[in-house]
Amino acid sequence: MAGTTPDLSDLRERIDALDAQLVRVLAERIEVCELVAQRKEATGAAVIQPDRVRDVIASRRQWGIDAGLDPDFVEQVVRVLLAETHRIEVAAGRPEPAPDKQAAGPDRLASAIDTAATRIDHVVVAVDNLDDAQASLSEQFGLRVERADDHVVIATGGGVTLVLVDGGAHPLVERFLAEHGPGVGHIAIDVLNAQFTHDALAANGTPLLTDVIVDADGHEEFLAAVDLVSGLQLAFISRTGHRLRLGSSNLMALLDALA
Q: Final residue of a domain: which of 47, 62, 91?
């Protein structure tokens, strides 16, 4: 006879216990990194050690594969941890006191965004000449560039993703370039759930240009109108399918919804 499914409250208790264990491990790791920082300061060693960073990322990716985890997910977690330990090493030498951390206020929209938003997922940039832009990002900044199709390039470096697109990709991009010239089209924020975020913004009266759109790779995304005060256009994306790199289908689905 098949075993019974554990009660939801029991499973949540297990998650809470594992998270508590995870926090303790993080605290211990930070403590060791503080000792490393003291050692570096005493010996005059550089704060950032590129070979060590590359080794940590590569080895942790393999550990993730061995454990049945998505290596890109493991790398993302490790990069956040590396950034925090580096910040601690640098901040230790600063004279001013650390600022107080403020929790999200009671405002409903702020609470919803604070709940859902995790990071900037990618930035879409319109360019006049895709070949020149691709070469510049590779040669000047060392980003890895890959053609998604004739009119879209994906540029990556560590946890950063830029999507370059030229006017041949879509009439809306062509119009953007004619009206504004090359520049940032929109910034896509990674959220836990696109529909939840869409509903929270809609309830607030935030102008939205699309409903939640699902592309062929399982990315759910919607686009807000340009904020006339800041000049920013924000998109919100969640990945509900396999962890696939962005391609042209994601951008085209969004642009087609606007056309």
A: 91
Distance set, CA 65 to CA 60, 143, 221 (Å): 9, 25, 28
Q: Are residues 140 and 220 in the same domain?
A: yes
Amino acid at 169: A
User: How far lies 102's CA from each of 105, 106, 164, in Å?
Assistant: 8, 12, 36
Q: Write the DSSP assignment of 166-227 as a string of letters.
A: -GGG-HHHHHHHHHH-SEEEEEEEEES-HHHHHHHHHHHT--BS---EE-TTSEEEEEBPP-
Look up the CATH number of the domain holding residue 74: 1.20.59.10
Task: Let me know how long the chain is.
Answer: 259
What is the pTM assigned to this prediction? 0.76
Q: Distance between CA 224 and CA 89 in Å, rounded?
A: 38
Domain containing 250 equals 108-258
In a shared domain, residues 182 and 236? yes
Determine phi and psi for 190, rounding to 5 degrees.
Answer: -75, 130
C-alpha dihedral over 71, 73, 78, 81, to 10 degrees?
-170
Tokens standing for residue 150: 């004739």
- Over the stretch 66-85, which tens digit does the pLDDT of each residue have? 999 989 889 889 988 888 88
For residues 238 and 151, state if they share a domain: yes
Q: Do 50 and 138 fall into the same domain?
A: no
Indicate if 151 and 75 belong to the same structural domain. Answer: no
First to last CA, the chain: 55
Do 157 and 205 lie in one domain? The reply is: yes
**Which residue blocks in 98-170 are alpha helix, DSSP H?**
108-116, 130-141
Predicted confidence (pLDDT) at residue 1 exceeds the cutoff of 50:
no
